[in-house]
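Consider the following input, taken from an annotated entry for Phosphoenolpyruvate-protein phosphotransferase ([Anoxybacillus] calidus).
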Amino acid sequence: QKAEWAKLVNERTITKDGHHVELAANIGTPDDVKGVLENGAEGIGLYRTEFLYMGRDHLPTEEEQFEAYKTVLERMEGKPVVVRTLDIGGDKELPYLDLPKEMNPFLGFRAIRLCLEMQDMFRTQLRALLRASVYGNLKIMFPMIATLDEFRQAKAILLEEKAKLQAEGVQVSDNIEVGMMVEIPAAAILADQFAKEVDFFSIGTNDLIQYTMAADRMNERVSYLYQPYNPAILRLISNVIDAAHKEGKWAGMCGEMAGDAIAIPILLGLGLDEFSMSATSILRARSQMKKLSKEEAARFKETILSMRTAEEVVAFVKETFHIE
Ligand code: PEP
Ligand code: MG
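Applying the prediction step yields:
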């Protein structure tokens, strides 16, 4: 089977009925690009930049960040690279920021909330990204967006830094797409409004499931509630994809679910455009995708979305698509 998959390294991902879907990889550091290329990813769908900030005792400089982003963009040779701005807080702490302990870190001062307040830090990252943008196909997304106002503020800051750089005579790409992660239920529900203002969505199911089910993604005792196939989650995902398409935008997914064998036929049928997963899942997913018909998968959309439980969904999908 492995040998079979290896032959797919240089192929685009085309379904049995001729539809292209993008299979991209998630990375944490520039060193991960090697595995991305070896496994034939068509792009990077999530570059988690927090690793640049972790395991050290001070903030990374603009220059250090610029080098990291430039390296990734160059090695990807024009393939899309979606970089997520700093998503710190929750389970990821930065000791040198000296933030007060919180009762509910996952519901607290983190990600875009923190960046909009600690703007020097945010602006440094955006400048590094903007300067690196001329070395490849950069797309930028903001994590943990809950309101339109947050997205507008973040985008306005990005555009301010772009204008400043250009006034200094620095080259910046004019084709940077600016999108957001959809990982908070409020954003998933209001996706039709967000879709008018973003260039793309990337659904972060790791957090979207945790927040929708009110079940901590790290807590074993409530892990029975962590249900990717709960119809409530699937309806949110479907809403996000439909909202994007109505406005002519694309929708991807960068949570663990995107690489899951049971999720893949469901997501294909819901119309997901880009699937971003760990590099080691790409070839298996491509092999699965080649055997699926998008039009057939789409015919099961209403049936699946009107189911009552995750168990029903799993049983139906396994049976229908012959998954062990
Ligand atoms: C997510 O929440 O699904 C996601 C991709 O982000 P992270 O796992 O880094 O929170
Ligand atoms: Mg997340």
